[in-house]
Amino acid sequence: MPEKNNMPSLNRRQLLAATAATGMVLSSSPATAAAADGKPHLSGKSILITGCSSGFGNLGAIYYAELGARIFATMRNLPRAEGDALAEAAKDKKLDITILELDVLSDESVTRAVAEAERLNGGALDVVINNAGIGTGAPVELQDLETMQLLFDTNVMGYQRVARAALPKMRAQKSGLIVNVSSQLGRVMIPGMGLYSSTKFAVESMSEQMAYELVPHGVDVTIVQPGGFPTKIWENGNIYTASMLERANDERKAAYQALVDGALRNGGGSTDPMDVPRAIAEVIARTPGKRPLRLPVHPGAKPQLGINQVSAQTQVAMLGNSPYGPWVKDVNGRA
Predict the structure, then answer these.
(1) Of 63, 64, 159, 182, catalytic
(2) Which residue stretches of the chain have pLDDT < 70?
């Protein structure tokens, strides 16, 4: 382990937060900027969102803009009908939404889009929301390398590409927030969901490590853990799954017949997808340095809560007295 004098210095806020976090809970509630109607106040915030063609990204772009934020809503393959519809909604409601092309699979596309958003914003972005993602079903053995590559390249490396593009200017201004949308299935798993959980487990680990490393730079990281919501991820996932099953040989499929029969899903239940943008808006509006590391979102069961708690306690027990201790206590002490 590196010597203490090799570590970046911590400021007074971070050291105080680390001390307060010994019991895993901060003594004071984090402040949230709110408007007169009780909704979060996001005026002056610049937010870049990936995956805005549908789902949480699309809903969030409109909602955050309604709360006063300047939005850079991104999606791939522009022009497309979804982009036109979002632009029309923004025009009708007089919202500050700029639509940019961004393909999370392309280094060049990500770099170009983030740079353009920073140029239009006149500097660093306040918030980046990594939301674009895909899912597939069927057993792990049936997930061929083509499917696995696409899943990890989109759900994990896509997040890394966007964060790497935005972080230099965030670090330079000593403020910012990276929001990475994970899943309940980033902590628990269900047979027959393929390698989707594997990608979200990777997002959880990558995001938490980033959260520690960014403490001395004043940049927060929050991992959002939605449960099941009725968005297009199910419909899109079925397209990828059907293609994969066509490529799979009959012997492999026969070995897991029941799981194959249930691989194409109509999921999400009757929950309200707006729960996720509303929860993210609350986090954005919180005082910097007080935002939670993990944000479970679902009106029903949240099976990951126990794992989240044990994980935080374990990280502090393992690293609390190490040179990394102040960072780890700071991040895990945020309620």
Answers:
(1) 182
(2) 1-32, 34-36
Catalytic (active site) residue 200: yes
Angle between helix 12-20 and 325-332 (nearest 10): 70
Give the up-direction half-sphere exposure of residue 335: CA atoms within 13 A in the CB hemisphere.
13
Which residue type occupies 219? V
CATH of the domain at 195: 3.40.50.720
Alpha carbon distance 242, 230 (integer Å) = 19
DSSP per-residue letters across 242-291 = HHHHHHS-HHHHHHTHHHHHT-S---STT--TTHHHHHHHHHHHBPTT--
Q: Where are the alpha helices (DSSP H) in the chain?
A: 12-20, 55-66, 81-93, 107-121, 145-152, 158-173, 196-213, 233-247, 250-255, 257-261, 275-285, 305-319, 325-332
Q: Which of 45, 200, 290, 329 is catalytic?
A: 200
| pLDDT value at residue 34 | 66
Told to judge if 311 belongs to the known catalytic residues of this protein, a careful annotator would answer no
* Residue 67, both tokens: 């709360």
Is 34 among the domain residues? Answer: no
**Closest to 97 (Cα-Cα) out of 115, 75, 76:** 75
Task: Indicate if 182 belongs to the active site.
Answer: yes
196 catalytic per annotation: yes
Distances from the Cα of 64 to the Cα of 118, 123, 325, angstroms: 18, 19, 35
pLDDT score of 278: 97
Q: Which of 46, 53, 183, 198 is catalytic?
A: 53
What's the sign of the alpha-carbon dihedral 116, 120, 124, 128? negative
Per-residue pLDDT tens over the stretch 33-76? 765 578 899 999 999 999 999 999 999 999 999 999 999 999 99
Residue 169 lies in a domain: yes
Domains: count for the chain: 1
CA 116 to CA 122: how far, in whole Å? 10
Q: 285 is in which domain, residue-wise?
A: 40-305
In a domain, 88, yes or no: yes
